[in-house]
Every structure is written in structure tokens, then in C-alpha cells.
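DATA SHEET
Item: assembly model
Revision: 1
Owner: S.N.
Input lines:
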Amino acid sequence: MSKLIYNRRRFLGTAAATGAALASPAYLRRAMAQGSGEVNIWTYNDFVPESFKEQFESETGIKVNVRLVDDQGKQFNLLAAEQPNPTVDIMTVAGHRFLQFIDSELLAPLDTDRLSNWGNINPTFSESDWATINGNKWGAPILSGMEVLSYNTDYVTEEEALTWDTLFSEKYSGQTAYIIQDMMSIVMLMMGYDGNMVAYMDDPEKAAQIVEEAKQFLIEHKPLVRKYYDGGAEFQQMMVNQDIVLGHSWNGPAAALINDGFPLGMTIPREGSYGFVYTYNIANNAPNVDNAYTFLDAILASPEIGASMTKASGFISTYKGADQYLTELEKKSTSFPEEQLANLQFFRAEANDMKYSLLDPAVEAIKAA
Amino acid sequence: MNNRPELFRGNRIFLACIYWAFVLYVFVPLILMVLMGFKDSKFIGFPIRSWTLDWYTGVFADAEVISTFGYSVAIAVLSTLISIFVGTWIAVLLEGRKFTGRGVTFGLTVLPALVPGIISAIAFRIYARYLGIEPGMGAIIWAHAVHNVPFVVLVVMARLSTLPKSQIEAARDLGADPLVAFMRITLPYLVPAILGASIFCLLLSFDDFVRSFFLGGYDPTLPVLIFAKLRSGMSPEINAIATVALVLTAAIGIWAERFTRRMNKEN
Amino acid sequence: MTYDASAEREGRPGARPAADPTFWGRLTGWGPYHVLMRIATASPRRQFAILAAFPILWVLTQHLGPMLQMLRVSLTDAYPVAPGVEQSFTLENYARFFGDSIFWMPFFRTLTFAAVFTFCTLVITYPVAYFLARHVSRRNQMLFLLLLLIPFWVGEIVRTYAIMILLGNTGAVNMVLRFFGLIDRPIPFMYTSFSMGVGIVYLTALYMLLPLYSALEKLPKSMNEAAADLGAGAWTRFRRISLPMTIEGISSGCTLVFLISTGFYATPILLGGPSTTVFAETIAGFFHVAGDEWPTGAAFATIMFAAALVITAAFQRLMNALRKGDRT
């Protein structure tokens, strides 16, 4: 079932789609949105630090209700069904998913003037090209993640890990793993194409041909891979059990291993990779807008809060100066050399419809091959 | 025939070895699970370099885990009660009675047990939407109850087939109507079967992930919570939760068994 | 628990049942109940109708209903239906399966795996059930059986991860083998059809064990002994007596396990490798993506279930034929 839970990027929501369609507003309101002294948040495990939550509640008297979610699609489907009377105030969207939420009028533009602590966010994240859509800001960046090449330092050298090619080399045959959907984007990048497929929006034939090429590449190298996995926990277990020594992963799960003392390293290989940013967003027609702004301003108040989110999740904090609150090990697990960061680009949403209509069948074909 | 006991002894030892090997196969993963709950690390797996009790003590300090456990137990108990009620009724109808459509009714009765998990979850999901059942506790109970009915029917029918007819007739002769005869004779006779079926139902409900996931609302059941926790890694915490849940359910089970046994004796 | 007729007599002798102090006695004596019962039991036909109404209603609405609803969805072009969109009926979803060979591979793989794992489960649990039913004293049988049930209280996911740390490269099995110097490089058990089998047999053993146990338990001991007296060896006794006599248990156990294993989802995904994708994963894929893929998922689920039923029916026939063949 892990796929249901973890697959961040696909348009998910099996249960959620129906759950959303079925749950009557009355039912949800009873549970979530009564009274004014509340703020309702949908987010991932560990994204609201417990200590911050307690402090916020005692200082403001606003009760924080957190509903843990597993993926973007689930939030999208739930929210879409609840509109125009959502029960949620703040939700957690990945930046490259903004477009879908905004087009469906699910998010309210963020009034950054109401956030006195907006300036505490590193401008790399708050002022990036994906962060402004239709002239508005839509969310407060809190954590950032990326696709990395992780390797067991006892068996693989850093030099080898600087290129995605090593993942497909005979030398590590049967000792590698990757998330197949994510790998498709990266393979396109390896081949010198635009993995976001924005460049081919006007040329569907070219797009189809590129996906086909990437698909053939992965089928060709299928005998070398140990496992196509879905969730971070699986990746961590394979590393701990030494079933694999090298694999593609998100930096969060890899960082958690490093912080636990596992001999793991990670790189952004020279062919490049993709990053994503989690943001806190205010829902359109949110029932407790004022409380939501109070919450956002409070959570952005101190880099220490950003650091504690990083400690819990392994993703990189978007706060200025958050790293001064991290241990040496935590710093190491959440930072990359400048020259590697230069290879990073962010996922973009513009071509998602076309991209995933091509990618999904390709993934099925690779699995079936 | 002197050689006979020896002949059987050879078989017996061989079979005993297989049995205990099977017990080993079934228990080694469990032992590993319990053991990993003591590992002082955020990940399970060998080697274990240092040990801690924190994960286990943490389980009792975590209000969410405790309430989720209660929620799962409530779902299991309520769905089991429904399954037992419906299943026993169906069994009484089907056992030892000939009527047109009996075969079809039996086939339909066992259908939910034969439908593969994911398909059944999806079918329930679609049907719940059709009926207008909201996702949440009620929907989960409903799906678990329906799914478990066939197991109750099969177990109860087996027991019912051995009920001496003369007893019912005697009661009817004494003027008891069918309902009273059922409540005072058939039902007490079925108690062992119903207890057995209950254990099975409780177990199926408590362990169910797919149906709970598809039909759940805001609160997670224990397996669903474990999935949410899994997102930040398979930590010894999850092993500790599972172990504590195992011990608690076993304790509740033993207590319930003792309790019913004592009740029966007193009656 | 047996019916104790003396309870009835404990009331005042010769009194009407109404004087019976127990709850049921009082209920019987209560006027409205009495009238109700008289109406309900006026004729055997009416009595049967009252008994049968609820179960038949239940199985039709609760057991058949979900399956029919799924069938209906599989024949539509959109579900859930967005407001303002016209829903129409189509066979396209079924055509999609037959039109694209990438779906056939996981489909046939699932059926093959289910058959192989069912057979493995049978071979592994038969001796266990045999031992339980034939060689363990009646008093201990329940205990021994319960011992085997305990692991099923642990969630599928936790158990599956436990199997990972059992079979991983640094797992318990490799550790033991290494300790005894049997290997110097770990054996890669994980993410193969082997590790998947270990996980699946674990899940299905219970469903096989119980029918086998109850079939074996009914088998009269004397038959084996008589055969032994006649000089039949263990294998002959098994083949000529136990096996034919328990074919019903085998057949129902196998049916249950086969059908259940075609629906496994989490375990094959977590324990399987790149070449063990099962059909349940393909089906689930359609329910992950946008709503308009639901009908395709439902159609694929229907195809899977129909195929599994056909195979099971054929298997049951074969078993019936075997049983009849043995009798003549």
C-alpha cells in the first residue's frame, strides 16, 4: 500500500477522492471547524513541531488541529470536494503543484504584508520564479527537498556518486534502487532534455519520443536494478540491510539515515537533478483566516523552528540562519557544496498534464517488461 | 503387532519436526519485531549496537497511539457483533433446510470472503458512495462486518449441524415458541462456535488495512496510523507499537475468554 | 451447554409458562409478544418467510450489491462524475485490457504466482495440520492451534518489515549462515519471488491450515491403523487413505488461498523485485490517478476476479473428479 501513501507527484487520491466527495460539510465542520479559537492544518508527519504547537497554543489561545496527510493528491481531492466551505485553513502544497490548486481556485493568494516575519525566509525560496504565479505569492516556503544520489560510503566513492551513470553501471549490478516515476524525469535530464517537459509543450510528438527514449533506457537497464521502490521507508530499509549500496532517493529519508549514524553520503550528480519546496498555504474561503495568518507569522518567527522541522523531517529549511541551530551531523546531512547546488533545478508544473499522460503508461510498460 | 507403535513413532517425530519448524517460521519474524523495539536507533535492522527501553515507554506516553488503539478495538468489537448477529441468522437459515435458491444464497453468503482484498475495498468504496455512507468509523465497521459474515456463517453452520434435533423438539413440546427455543437451546449450544468466530472476526478487523484505508475518515485505525508513521521511516517505534498492541489484544482476549468461561459456569 | 429442562419445572408446578421467572419465560407470558408470535408462526410458510427475509435481503444488498456496483462503474466512462458531465456506458475499459499487452504480463504473472504459492502453502501446512490433528492430544490441540494464530494479530506491514530484516543482506538468516561459515558473501534473498513467497505463505497459511485441520480431524484413526496392520507403509497409507479422505479440505483450502492471494497488494510490493509486479498494483494505479480512471480500474478488477473464479471452478471440478475416481 506504500504507493498510495508516498507517491508525492502523481495525481493521487483514491480514497481521498471518494472520501472527499462523500464527507458532508456538516460532518466535517463538527469535527474540525467550530468556534473561532482554532486553526486547522493539513500537513505531513513532523511538519508542525510539537514544542512550537504547544507554545503557540498557550500564548495565543488558538487551538491547533493537525490532520496528517500522505500526499498532495489527497489534499487536492479533499479540498476540491469541500469548497466553497472548506474545513481547513492551512495546507501543505509542493511548489510545483501550485498551478493545479490555483486553477481550481482552492488557494487564497498570500498577503505577505500581514506576515511581519516574511523576511525571515531565504529569498532563494521566497522569490524564486515558481513562487510567484499570476503576480501573487501563494504560500510560505518552509522546507525544501530534492532528488539525490545516495550511496553507502563504505562501498561507493564520492567520485563515483557524482554521476547518475554509476547507478546504471555493471559494477553495482543488483545493488541499486530507484523510484521509477522520478527516475524518468532524471533520465530525461541525463539525456540532455527538459525533464519538466515545459520546452515541448508545443511539440507533443517530440515529447512522446523523449519519453519513449527514456523508457527504453530504463528497460535496457532493468536487469541491473535490485528494486523499484515507492516510499522513503523502503529505501532506508534496503540501505540498512545492505540490500543496496547506491540509489536514487529524496534527500529527506537519506538525511534521516545520516543523522542516525549510518555511513551514507548523497550528491546532486553533475547531470543535474530536481528540487521541490513545501509551502504552507491558506485555503480559499478558509474558516479561520486571521488565525491562519497568526499561525504562519508565528511559525516563521524564529530560525530555531525551521531547524526543528529539519531535524524531524530531514528536509532542508528555507529559513535564514536555520543551520546555526543544527548539529554538525545535521548540517552535513542537509547541505550540499555550491558546485552541486548549481546543478539543481526545480520541478515545474506547466506541462504536468502532458508529462504524466505520457509518463504513467511508460512506467507501467517498464514494470511489465 | 509390536512394530506398530514404532512405525508410528518415526512418523510422529518427523511430523513434530515439521510442526516446530513451522512454528519457528511463524515466530521468528515476530521475535525480530519485538527485539527491534529495543534498538537504540531510528531504524530497524542488524547490527544492534545499543539498546533502549525508550520506544516502549514512549508508546504509553503517546496519546495518539493509545486513542487509535481504542478506536481500532471499538471498530473490531462493533463490527464483530454485527457479523455474529447476521452470520448466525444466516447460518440458522441455511443449515439443514432445503428451499429453492438455497445454493444461490449460500454462494452469495460466502462471496465477500472470496473477493480479493483490494477489489473488495474498492467495491465497498464505490458502494458506500452509492449508498451515501460517509467515510469514517461507521463505514469501516460496515465494511468489516460484511466482509466477516461468511466466516461466521461457515463456523456456526458446522457447529449447528451437530446439534441434536431432539433437544429443540423437547423444548417445543414444553410450549416454547421458535424464538424462545432458539434463545434457550440453540444459542447456548452455539456459544463455542460463536466465540471461535468472534476471535477470527476481531482479528480480521483489527489487522485490516485496505478496507480501513479506503473507507476511513479523519481518525486513523492502528494499521493506518502505522502507515502514516512509516512515512518518516520504519523506526523501532512502530515495532514497539505493534508489540504493545499484540500484548494488549492478547491480554484482552485471554480476559474475555476467562470471563465468558466463568459466566458460563455461573449459569 | 445443554438445555436444562428442569429450569422450566422450577417455577410453580403446573403453572402457565407465564409464571416462569426467567426473562424468556416472562416474555412468553407477555400478551403482545404472544400475539405477535402467533401471527408469525401461523403457518410454516410464514415462519420461513420471516426467518429468510433478513438474510436474503442482507446478502443481496450487502454482499452482491458492492460487486454489482463495481460492475456498473466498470461499464461507464467517468466515475465519480463531475458536475455537468454526462455519463455514458461503454465497453472501452475492457477493451483497454485486451488491447494493450503491457497489462497481460502482470495479469498472468499474478495468476501463476497465486497458483504456485497456493501449492507451496498446501505442501507446507499439510504436515503441520496432520501433526496437529493426528498426533497431538485433543486437550492440547486448541493450544497448539492458537499458538499458530498469534502472529496474525500483528499487522501486515510490521510483519512484512520483519521479513525484510530476516532475509536482508545483513538479515538474521545471512547472519546465521555466516556465523557457521557456510557462506562468505550474503545471499541476496530479498526482492525476489522467493522473498515474496515467504511473505505470502505467511499470510495465507492460516486459511489453508484451518480447513485441512478440520478435514483431518474427522478422519478416523482406526483406518490408518488397520492399513498399517495390513503392512501398508507410511507413504502408501498417506496416498491411499489420508489424501483421498481429505480432498475436500484440500480443495476448500486451496480455493480460499488462491482467491485471496490474487488480491494481495502491500506484501508483493514491499517484498517483490522489479520483475514481480502483480496485477493488484496495476489495478491500484488506476485508482491513484485522476477520477476518470476509476472505471478502468473497476473493469480490470472485474477481469481479475472473473479469471480467478474461472480457474477456481475448473480446479473444483478436477478435485470432484479425483474424489469420484477414488471411490470407484
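QC remark: Chain B has a mean pLDDT of 82.
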